[in-house]
Amino acid sequence: MANHESQVSAAIRRAKASRRGALVGYLPVGFPDLDTSVAAAIAMAKAGADVIELGLPYSDPVMDGVVIQEATQTALAAGFRLTDVFEAVRRVREAVDTPVLVMTYWNPVLQYGLERFATELAAAGGAGLITPDITPDSAAEWIAVSERLGLDRVFLAAPTSSDERLALVSRSTKGFVYTVSTMGITGERTQLDEAARKLTARLRESGAELACVGIGISTAEQVSAALEYADGAIVGTAFVRALRDGGIEQLSRVVREIAAGTAQH
Questions:
Q1: How many Å apart are CA 186 and CA 73, to the nearest integer?
Q2: What is the pLDDT of residues 21-77, one digit of tens each?
Q3: pLDDT in tens, 103-136
Q4: φ, ψ for residue 188 (rounded to 5)?
Q5: Which of 92, 91, 153, 93 is nearest to 117 (CA)?
Q6: Which of 65, 11, 74 is closest to 37 using CA atoms?
Q7: Any idea what DSSP says for residue 62?
Q8: What's the burial of 23, exposed, middle or buried (CB within 10 Å: 0-12/13-18/19+)?
């Protein structure tokens, strides 16, 4: 059952056909509680996100900035359970047609059982996983399971990656390559890194079909700038902050504002 069409790459290609590229929106599951996080993800899709990225709250989020860290701590304190991820994905997918990726560190997947996790994610309608802390050369089992179940597997590429590593990532990824614009933690930057542009060019040379740039994008102008060279822009902190400060109403408004950056000039 290999070679399933990727829900995520199809959504990105649709966005590129009608606009400049895709908006990928991130929110943690269970923040501020499970029901609100589900409603927020649905609102994000309706306000203009082409792909939804649901984060699995984790006690040691090495890649996340303070706004997302605080949100995931809130979710954990509110009693988040790993099975909430599958419920959230299922409820979002029942409401909207937007593909849903789950971003997770690898340890919770291993503890739950890779086969079981992947099977339940697929059954819930999830598109696949973004795995920040596992590399393709150590992911043989995940690659095999995801091929069988038709799940996307989004690996990360960083400016420090060697050409060999980028070629491996480009070959192994399904959906898009998550292009990390700056080394370090997610959050907002006033100036998008030149490194992201160079890294995306290197990925194209190594055969990556679709690359989305994340880490540091928080305005429509930054989305527009990223889409000059990338296929999609990933926004997290700005959306989590909007949800935290003004609930779903403010989140919807901010998503609409930032999604305007995907429009054709």
A1: 16
A2: 999 999 999 999 999 999 999 999 999 999 999 999 987 756 668 899 999 999 999
A3: 999 999 999 999 999 999 999 999 999 999 999 9
A4: -115, 145
A5: 153
A6: 74
A7: T
A8: buried
Which tokens belong to 264?
């054709």
Return d(Cα 22, Cα 35) in angstroms, integer: 26
- What the block records as the tokens of 243 is 């949800």
Q: Where are the beta strands (DSSP E) in 9-162?
A: 22-28, 51-55, 100-103, 128-130, 152-154, 156-157
* Angstrom distance (rounded) from CA 40 to CA 144: 33
Beta carbons of 261 and 218 less than 8 angstroms apart = no
Give me the residue label for tokens 């291993």: 110
Question: Residue ranges of the domains in the chain?
Answer: 7-260
HSE-up of 125 (CA within 13 Å, CB side)? 15
Considering the entire predicted model, what is its pTM?
A: 0.94
Q: Which residues make Cβ contacts (< 8 Å) with residue 92, sequence separation at least 6?
A: 38, 41, 42, 45, 52, 54, 98, 100
* Residue 211 host element (H or E): strand 211-214
- Cα 46 to its chain centre, rounded Å, is 17
Given the candidates 1.10.3720.10, 3.20.20.70, 3.40.630.40, 3.40.50.300, the CATH classification of the domain at 7-260 is: 3.20.20.70
Give, as one character, the DSSP assignment of residue 113: -
Residues 65, 68, 74, 78, CA torsion sign: negative
- Positions marked active-site: 53, 64
Nearest Cα residue to 129 out of 183, 159, 86: 86
Query: Measuring CA to CA, which residue among 46, 66, 42 is closest to residue 54?
Result: 42
